[in-house]
Amino acid sequence: MEDLAKFAIRAYWETSGSQVRAEELDEPLVNGLLLNHKVYAVRTKEWGSLVGVVAVGYYDGYTFVLPGKVGAAPDNFNEMIIREKILVDEKAALNISKVYVIVESQAYKRSFLEKATDIPWSENAAGKNPSEYENIVKPHQVTPTSDGGFQVRLYTWGRTLGILIEWSFVISSDGQLSIQTVEVAQEVGDCIFPPI
Fold first, then answer.
1. What is the DSSP string of 101-151?
2. For residue range 133-144, what is the model confidence (pLDDT) as tens digits?
3. Confidence band for 4, pLDDT divided at 50, 70 and 90
4. 106/50 same-domain check
5. How many whole angstroms separate alpha carbon 49 and alpha carbon 26?
6. pLDDT of residue 41
7. In the predicted model, is pLDDT for residue 182 greater than 90?
8. Number of folded domains in the chain?
């Protein structure tokens, strides 16, 4: 199945003229939640730049191109979650939200935060002191909704550009999600800047 999945992924992207390679995501949370799909990061062979993220069904080879930018429509992600038949409780709602962030964040890795001081920072850091955001960044919060779903709020930080993001998810009882993001700040902590 894995060779067939990688072949399908290469065929999809190479028709657009890009030579690509597929790498299985080695993320315990993704692999623990998605029992019927394998998720791959698709990168160019020459530079290793991210082209996209793909989920492939174990049993039928059905392939989903997953969103790859903040706030992208989660339609394919939602369809994949429906096919997983996940019983949505508080823990599953949080994990679905985190898996979305992990999948969406393959180009610029993000860390989940419980508090602002989880962001690395030193006196000679290029970015702002994370303690400036102590009143904003809170531990993840999962709240039941009146229709049997959950609302999830969490914060992430990415070393590239030092971007601090607040994520708000509404997850229905069947695992469907809608997302809102707020970029709280840039250039926070020990951030790096990509070459131009």
1. HHHHTSSS-EEEESSGGGS---TT-SSB-GGGGTTT----EEEE-TTS-EE
2. 999 999 999 999
3. low
4. no
5. 17
6. 82
7. yes
8. 2
> Using 50, 70 and 90 to split pLDDT, how confident is the model at 190?
very high
Q: How many whole angstroms from its chain centre is CA 91?
A: 17
Does 100 share its domain with 191?
yes
What confidence tens digit (pLDDT) does each residue in 73-109 have? 678 888 888 888 888 999 999 999 999 998 888 777 8
- How far apart are alpha carbons 151 and 88 in whole angstroms? 12
Domain that holds residue 177: 91-196
Task: Examine residue 85 and state whether it is found in any structural domain, yes or no.
Answer: no
The DSSP secondary-structure symbol of 189 reads S
Give, rounded to a whole angstrom, the gap between the first and last alpha carbons of the chain: 39
- CA dist 145 and 33 (Å) reads 22
End of a domain among 32, 66, 100?
66
The answer to whether residue 174 is domain-embedded is yes
Residues 104 and 56 in one domain: no
The answer to whether residues 61 and 106 belong to one domain is: no
Residue 68 pLDDT more than 60? no
